Amino acid sequence: MTPDDASTTTPITRAQREEQRRRAGTLEWRRDPFTSTSSGVVEESRDWHLSGILWDPARPLAIINGQTVQVGDQLGAYRIVSITRETVTISDGTATTTLHLTR
């Protein structure tokens, strides 16, 4: 088997599976990033910081100023208009701002 052969898998032993379960039990889990904890309102800020986009075509999420938001949520006077793989567009009804994901 070569590393490039993705169609073949090697079964793991019972001892390896038990070791995986033991290690998984010691991990510190935080919140699920795909579950929105947003109430839909985020404190208004002129300094928007887009720190991440969780891309799912059906329900994209963005992390702006440490808050997880989705299309339709409010950022102070601004509403999330759209989320793409690289940008988030917000609007207050008169002005539109596009936030770009920085790498």
Report on the architecture of this protein.
By secondary structure, this protein is mainly β. It has a domain at 41-100: SH3 type barrels (Roll). The protein is built from one helix and eight strands, in the order H-E-E-E-E-E-E-E-E. The strands form two sheets. Strands 1-5-6-7-8 form a five-stranded mixed β-sheet, with no helix packed on it. A three-stranded antiparallel β-sheet has the order 2-3-4, with no helix packed on it. Strand 2 and strand 3 form a beta hairpin. The longest helix is centred in the first third of the chain and has 12 residues, at 14-25. It starts with 13 loop residues before the first helix and ends with a strand. The relative contact order is 0.15. The model is unreliable at 39-45 (pLDDT under 50).
Q: Please indicate the percent range of residues in DSSP E strands (runs of 2 or more).
A: 25-35%
Largest sheet: 5 strands, mixed
Q: Total helix count?
A: 1
Write down the overall mean pLDDT. 79
Order of strands, main sheet, comes to 1-5-6-7-8
Low-confidence stretches: 39-45
Which percent range fits the helix content? 10-25%
Report the radius of gyration as a whole number of Å.
20 Å
| Tally of DSSP β-strands | 8
Structural class: mainly beta
The CATH architecture of the domain at 41-100 is Roll
Query: What's the CATH topology name of the domain at 41-100?
Result: SH3 type barrels
Supply the CATH class of the domain at 41-100.
Mainly Beta
**Helix and strand element order:** HEEEEEEEE
> Rough shape?
elongated
Query: Ends: how far apart?
Result: 36 Å
